[in-house]
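Dear support,

Our group has been running a series of protein-ligand predictions, and this particular one with nicotinamide-adenine-dinucleotide is the one our PI (initials K.S.) wants archived with full inputs and outputs. We had some confusion internally about which version of the output was final, so please treat the block below as the authoritative record. The input we submitted was:
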Amino acid sequence: MANSVFQVPYPSNEPILTYAPGSPEKEAVLVNYAKMYAETIEVPMRIGNEDITTGDTGTMSPPHDHKHILGTYHRASKNDIENSIQTALEAKKAWSQMPWESRAAIFLKAAELVAGPYRSRINAATMLAQSKTIHQAEIDAACEYIDFLRFNVTFMQEIYENQPENDPGIWNRVSYRPLEGFVYAVSPFNFTAIAGNLCASAAMMGNTVVWKPSDHQVFSANILMQVFREAGLPDGVINMVFGDPEMITNTVLESPDFAGIHYTGSTEVFRNIWSKIGQNIDRYRSYPRIVGETGGKDFIIAHPSSNPKEVATGIIRGAFEFQGQKCSAASRVYLPKSIANEVIDFVKAELKTIKMGSPEDFQNFVTAVIHKGAFDRLANAIEQVKKDQKVEIVAGGTYDNSKGYFVEPTVVVTTDPHYTTMKKELFGPLVTLYVYPDNEWAETLTIVDQTSEYALTGAVYSQDRYALEEALNALENSAGNFYINDKPTGAVVGQQPFGGARGSGTNDKAGSAANLMRWVSPRLIKETFVPAKDYRYPFLGK
Ligand code: NAD
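Confirmed final output from the archive:
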């Protein structure tokens, strides 16, 4: 029995390795990339202590080389999902009783495994099957994931330390119970770190989890599962299932023990899940926690006082890194007429230097989009833009899926600030610019605020402090993560807790104590040392 108040190691952000030519990390990741490319693997589901194969399989391919097969993964039947729920509920009994510092140790060990022995493998897997450049893989699958694990452990301790005041003769205590039932985690394709965090954050707080990764992230999800196991996570705490998302979700939501969902993905799917939870509300033992981070239509607005090169660099990095497939990617930009040409010329000149191709070639800044559906969506949008009068392509506009799903970084300029590509999330390397008259700063801020249903990230570039103040006020509800003189992407755990409101999610700020609080149900315990023996209060006296 541990009779101590433990202090977890103080976290700091994992340093980003450079992968410069000749560096050992570059060599290690390329060795793993080549090995994984050459072999064909089979990914089972993991339910309790069993690897589950069903024979109902899907295939995994690199988006930049879609005819090549990396392996297959096994898809669940309804029965498998019911088993995963039962397994999670069984495992909960021991897991929820485990001392919190032992849970902390498991996830801290997982962080060290990713930082060390698994780093090149998880990065190579993310490069291969999600088509990330090494830099994008490193900041996601390695650094962000390590940060999630280390910082969340600290936030967990802070939550447990948060205790109420006491009157004399009384001791008030709060215990932070895991939710009653199991948690369902549903993750998107675009961040290995998000996938790992959605299940791990709930598990860290003593819950057990049924985790359904995206079909397009199974390859690196498999490595996350290996890390959990090597770190000592007991069987059944996180159960990984694949397959038909609708069947899996419907089965989960039928369970009276469904205690909460930790979701990241598109807005439409989340709304659909929320309404199903509503329809099922009479079934549940408790009101389920509903946490979802969803889509974005993220903006950059430049003031006439801003520096054109800084704005142009913000557009290139903000809109095109990872092919614009970040929920935070800049996809609508507002430029004042006085600097618009200079910004656009600089963007065009810089885009000419950008190379597109396989992430195995480190000179490529842009690789492929995730799948055929994404490719078709973007190709159709580009074709529509070519037909419409109100909009003109000033850079890019080509696409080719013969080997991989490649879409050239595309910049379009519109005369209509409400044109469809200013409003709709396309989730790819297409950014739309609108040029506004310099003397309409206030009016343009109103347009930025009212154009889209989303409110995830946004950036304002200005050297004029009054203009910045005006933007901060006018755009108060337009973004959950607001950037001043910086691109709207690249949130760092512990520094910029992430999430948005309106159609962008419940804003429970991944990588913060606020998020972890959603996975506990506090119990207040009041203990009176010398209880009263007479019901009469003094005011009753004559
Ligand atoms: P997606 O909505 O296609 O899929 C997300 C998850 O939902 C996947 O696991 C998928 O299998 C599952 N799903 C799909 N249809 C479902 C259904 N009918 N019922 C239940 N589950 C279903 O999203 P994606 O393409 O994987 O990811 C891109 C989206 O995620 C974008 O909209 C992006 O903005 C958003 N995103 C948001 C954040 C954020 O923090 N706000 C972060 C990353 C991604």
